[in-house]
Specification:
Strands 1, 2, 3, 4, 5, 6, 7 and 12 form an eight-stranded mixed sheet that branches. Helix content is 41%, strand content 21%. By secondary structure, the chain is an alpha+beta fold. The protein folds into two domains: 203 residues, Ribosomal Protein S5, domain 2 (2-Layer Sandwich), CATH 3.30.230.10; 139 residues, Alpha-Beta Plaits, CATH 3.30.70.890. A hairpin with a 6-residue loop joins strand 9 and strand 10. It binds adenosine-5'-diphosphate and magnesium ion. Adenosine-5'-diphosphate (ADP) binds next to helix 3, strand 5 and helix 4.
């Protein structure tokens, strides 16, 4: 059964009828540009073939019911109750099961944007690995946002829907994330990465030419789940804000490589290293876009590796599993490799020759076994299409 069929089957189980349509949105891999999004900086993600599907039907009443193959029970509320549920107070658990706050939060954010409509039943199925740094969260938001935008005839464009998804994640779920994931899921295209300036929201699709060059991107999911809403992620954001303030600005986007010498003088070592990661990572994103255009994907390996080292040593968000995946992939002939996503778990990526996929995968699997780590989940991702209606 395909994932789309699983969404249909769940919808049938829920309602005994056929849906009005099916909408889907992909997860994403961030090629380079980590933790730069909330610093008004640059990112370069691409949408992956793994998608979340929402089969959605219109109800006779003004209630919204969400179900997911991921959850035991559907959750149902009245549309006019959403305003009492959200926004979730900072740091508090949502008043509904957390997973349901994603699609219900999307409905809430759409209502705040002026969209209204009938009640709906939403059945969700996904093959995006959850909590792996591949943004299953943006995928579920994107699928729900696409469906409700169409069924409620809200007429919002994809960028606006990305902002709806972000608002749901920030204010209904309570996870303080940037806009990158939703933009990649909404605007991604086959064989292209999405260059995004997180300050202006200007975008540019950058051709990767992976298949033509005989290259693949392997995802090495360490199976160590990260948690966004708590802990290190928020702490890193606070460090970045502190660093920007000490440099007399509101955002590290305004700090350049030439300013780093002064930064080192005016802040403590930890804050300085956090700042240095962001500032150099922004430059690496710009360099990656330039190198892709000039020389193609085979030439970006060193930039990927430098990005990983910066996250490991300066931003300190890597883990022993992620470091092992990166080091082993490189030793087994990967052209470049880095952890991807927010860190503290999740996945690393490796850029590899098509002919070396087997070799790199088995080397990483063997290294994990030898270290007593949980077996990694390794798969190839071709840059894929963004959110759309499927049926
Ligand atoms: P990531 O985006 O890296 O996968 P997040 O912590 O941002 O990790 O989002 C994962 C959360 O999103 C899950 O814990 C769950 O609450 C929600 N979620 C993702 N996919 C689904 C799904 N198919 N059904 C229900 N909830 C989902
Ligand atoms: Mg997420």
């Amino acid at each position: 059964m395909t994932t789309q069929e699983a969404a249909l089957a769940l919808f049938a189980e829920l309602t005994d009828s056929a849906p009005a349509g099916i909408w889907s949105a992909p997860g994403r891999v961030n090629l380079i540009g980590e933790h730069t999004d909330y610093n008004d900086g640059f990112v370069l993600p691409f949408a992956i073939p793994h998608r979340t599907y929402a089969a959605v039907g219109i109800r006779e009443d003004l209630r919204i019911r969400v179900a997911s193959t991921f959850a035991e029970e559907p959750v149902e509320v009245a549309l006019d109750e959403l305003n009492a549920l959200f926004p979730t107070a900072s740091g508090a658990e949502p008043a509904v099961p957390e997973w349901a706050a994603y699609p219900l939060g999307v409905a809430w954010a759409l209502q705040l944007a002026g969209a209204t409509g009938t009640g709906v039943d939403i059945a969700i199925a996904s093959d995006v690995p959850v909590g792996a740094g591949l943004s299953s969260s943006a995928a579920i938001e994107g699928a729900a946002a696409g469906a409700l935008n169409d069924l409620w005839k809200a007429g919002l464009d994809r960028r606006a829907l990305a902002r709806i998804g972000r608002r749901a994640e920030n204010e209904a779920v309570g996870a303080p994330t940037g806009i990158m994931d939703q933009m990649a899921s909404m605007l991604g295209e086959r064989d292209r990465a999405l260059f995004l300036d997180c300050r202006t929201l200007e975008t540019d699709l950058v051709t990767l030419g992976m298949a033509d060059a005989g290259l693949e991107i392997l995802v090495m999911d360490t199976q160590v789940k990260h948690a966004h809403a708590t802990g290190g992620y928020g702490e890193r954001r606070a460090s970045c804000e502190r660093g920007a303030a000490l440099m007399g600005t509101t955002s590290l986007r305004d700090v350049s490589i030439d300013d780093l010498a002064r930064a080192e003088e005016v802040m403590d070592d930890v804050t300085f290293r956090r700042v240095r990661h962001i500032v150099t990572e922004n430059q690496r994103v710009l360099d990656t876009v330039r190198v892709l255009g000039e020389s193609g994907a085979r030439a970006i390996g060193d930039l990927l590796v430098a990005s990983h080292e910066s996250m490991r040593d300066d931003f300190e968000i890597s883990t022993p599993e992620l470091d092992l995946a990166v080091e082993t992939a490189l030793a087994a002939s990967a052209i470049g490799a880095r952890m991807t996503g927010g860190g503290f778990g999740g996945a690393a990526i490796a850029l590899v020759e098509h002919s070396a996929v087997e070799r790199v995968s088995s080397a990483v699997t063997a290294a994990f076994a030898a270290s007593g780590f949980t077996a990694p989940h390794i798969f190839s991702v071709a840059p894929a299409a963004g959110a759309h209606r499927d049926a």
